[in-house]
Amino acid sequence: MKALREAAEKLLREKRVSLVIGYEDRKGRPAFFAAKPEDCGRLAYDASCRQNLAAYLGKPEIRARLPVAVVAPPAVLRSIVVLTAESQLPPGQVLALAVDGDSFLGTFDAAGVAELLRAKYSTLAPEPALLERVQGLLQKSPAERAAFWEAEFSKCTRCYACRAACPGCYCSRCIVEKNAPQWISTAALGHGNYTWSVMRAFHQSGRCTLCGACEAACPQGLPLMLLNAVLDREALEEFGSRPGYDPEAKPLIGSWSADDDHSYMR
Amino acid sequence: MARIGVFICHCGENIGRTVDCAAVSAAAAKMPGVVVGMDYKYMCSDPGQQMIRKAIIEQKLTGVVVGACSPRMHERTFRAAAAEAGLNPYLLEMANLREHCSWVHSNQAEATQKAIDLVRVMVAKVRRNRPLRPIRVPVEPTALVVGGGIAGIQAALDIAAGGKKVVLVESGPSIGGHMARLSETFPTLDCSQCILTPRMVEAASHPNITLMTYSEVASVEGFVGNFTVTIRRKARYVDPAKCTGCGDCFNKCPIKKIPNEFDAGLGLRRAIYVPFPQAVPNKPVIDAAHCTMLQKGKCGLCAKVCPRGAIDYQDQDRLEKVKVGAVVLATGFQLWDHAAYGEYGGGRLRDVIDGFAFERLASASGPTAGLIKRPSDGKEPKTVVFLQCCGSRDDKVGKKYCSKICCMYTAKHAMLYRHKVHDGRAVVFYMDVRAAGKGYEEFVRRAIEADGAEYVRGRVSRITRRRDGKLVVLGADTLAGRPVTIDADLVVLADAVVPRPGSEKLAQLFGVGYDQDGFYSEAHPKLRPVETAAAGVFLAGACQAPKDIPETVSQASAAAAKVLGLFAKPELEREPVIARVNRTTCAHCRACISACPYGAAKDFDIVDRAGKVLRAVADVNEGLCQGCGTCASVCRSHSVDLDGFTDEQIHAELNAL
Amino acid sequence: MMKTETSTAPAPAAFEPRITAFVCNWCTYAGADLAGTSRLQYASNMRIIKLPCTGRIDPLFVLKAFENGADAVLVSGCHPGDCHYTSGNYHARRRWTLFRKLLALTGIGDDRLFFSWVSAAEGQKFADLVNDVTAKVRKAGPFCAVHPGRRAS
Q1: Domain range annotation of chain C
Q2: Which CATH class is domain C19-138?
Q3: How far apart are CA B104 and CA B102, in angstroms?
Q4: Does the beta-carbon distance from C102 to A230 stay under 8 Å?
Q5: Which of A152, B150, B181, B484 has the fewest CB atoms within 10 Å, counting from its CB?
Q6: What is the value of pTM for the model shown?
């Protein structure tokens, strides 16, 4: 903790960044924006931090204040690599204060982040419990699966906290806000809720780092990670996709190989 | 306010028999936005078209749906009719009531219901159609021809004869290609150089042709009508403007023992050389890899003897840009390396040669002055075995395809050999003799019957060299059903025809597809065999598939005709179905840029008046975009849309179902 | 309520599925034309939406079709290597590989969502495909009335 605070303070003192985005040392570990060196004493980190702070990097308010530093556990580091690959981070404008569990790993630029991930976290895998839940759901009948989601999606209030929490959701005009035509109904009712959640998950294909921030942010407790996990598993198995490791990766949706599977095509 | 007219065609009885056309037009008349619903026996006939034109004018229609045959049949007809009546042709859509409905369903109620649905979908779509204008792009009336073999020469000459400028690029020091290496050509046995060299000279001297030898395509920008191609002019170390081609330099060059590629390694050349005496341009280049002056700074003899001071050891590769409107790829072929066949000596037996080596042996201007001498000891071979399908039709080690020209040139080789060595024996091992062509079968018969070539149907399993220098050829005569052993002095392998190295990279530069073997893909195997998927890029010769000379020349002339057709108008008209980016909402994730098959989606910087970059977004180049819409569907925020198939149109169609 | 629904459920034979097909202009649309010119007879349940290329088809189109009452959706285009636009179908293939798994998790499985390659020469394949898809959907019954993706009627 001390090392993290010192590193953050140093960055601000040396004016290498104008802002450090971190977690605050209080209950729930909310996001905290340290703009002055003396703010850094309020930074903290532990395993209870669920928010993906890379999500702030897409916000215009933060982009106006670049360069910035972000406190980043492994999933956030991967998000930084994804954002780099998608030309969302101006080169050299974002530093990562890498943390893992209780330990502080150091300050890294974009290239350093990718290197650290490859060296130390190349085997990150989804939690087995999550995959088991996906498997369990897939073993039910289609009608049971439909009923399961009907019950879940009916709770959705369309607050879009899932979107706000996700670093991948940086579009200035989200598809759900496009109204000519309106592909996704904005009423908090069945089909619009369904289409929204399905498309939100699909739009993260090959980009989601399974950080869990969307599900953690959902005030209704929707099991959004099930959707993310089924796509992550398929993308890995079919295309070897491991988002967030290669800052020069081509988008999974937006590239192809002649060898891609099509056994389901008639 | 939408004012849509719906016109239902009976197509005689073709639609009317199964679909209740009157019911469809009546149902259509009640659809939202529709002001006219009519049906008629033959909508595509003059009176039918007149009905549509009249309604457009009198009813002030803003859109038209014709329920008739497939749009592939008559969309052009009806759109032209709409245009005549002053309606933008892209405000007319067709509902396919014949191929997709009346012809495939027999139940009248079902077919009529489906017809109504199909019309409703199109009405919903056409209400969202916007007038589109064909895209006009200016055309630079200069062609680039890549490859200076017979294909490239022919295409260049034909384009030049049509009055347009041509830049002919050849990677070697001389044009002429493989044809210049041939002794005589089948099926007429006329001397290859005699018919080719006049064309080479003509290409070099034609006022419309700019020849760039020893040059390669480095990069390509732009699109049909407007390519900017960067050519790498490789360092020749000889200034062609000063050089007179006197030959003093290469007669004095002390580095003498370099195998000459032109002679398939059978002859020798110097470090400064012209590849063959009839080369065009007949000016030498220095082979930097072998020149001691360039490698070690020692020698400099050629510069001393050159009376014109043309030698320049400081010469470097230069990049030159040319602006062209069309491109002909004519990069040709090479022979597959039979070293992959260990059973044939793995390329280590000196007297096992390929077809080009035999051409050079048989050529009057070749290293043996046309005498057949085998490479190992220079003796005249008394038994020569020719092996067809070496690497062709063998998907295990070689290539799956038939190389097409080998049957004929092997017959020619056998014939030439027998003409030159009267007491010699020519044995040809073949799988099938494929001699389909004008005078071809007769030619093969002549080789067998008049010239006594012995044809053995079967494959050769092994070639070994005996201590006395004989090549023991172990084969099978599958017609007689027995093994055959021949003691040969020389073996000629008809190696498979394969694309030139680097042809795949060149294809990628131009956005041209290629097959698993590396041959360039034509736009359509039957109907567009000269075009490629890249608009304005055409194919000639063996870069597309193995071809003989007449076929190559035909395709080259066809490619030239395509180029001249493209250049016939100062502007090019293109279908206006292209993608557009909403720059306000584009987040510049670059998925569309990655997805675009044509490189049409590109980065674009939004700048302020002072030129400062405010934001980067994606942009679509109108000239390159072909309208597939892949960019639109990878865009998460739907900031890319496709004219003619817009989000709004598709959304409306789905809501009408 | 549940009881009434059960007792008034129509007999399977009376169920005529609504099937929406998204096809490309160059291969499958032309293949369907060929089925027509060859006078091949097939079930009349499918309605085609023509697009230039399968690469144009956004997953949202599929969800919209289901939302609007389709019992099944077919996506069909050029065979690998045959795409008029060289690679639009390859892009589509990758997209559908992922999307179908996501939909399967939400209860839209292989009996609702079909993919095929039909070339311009495969009129018979197109006719067979329509018949086969229609039979399968008939057997599967109406798209689950409680599915969250369906617009409440």
Answers
A1: 19-138
A2: alpha beta
A3: 6
A4: yes
A5: B484
A6: 0.75
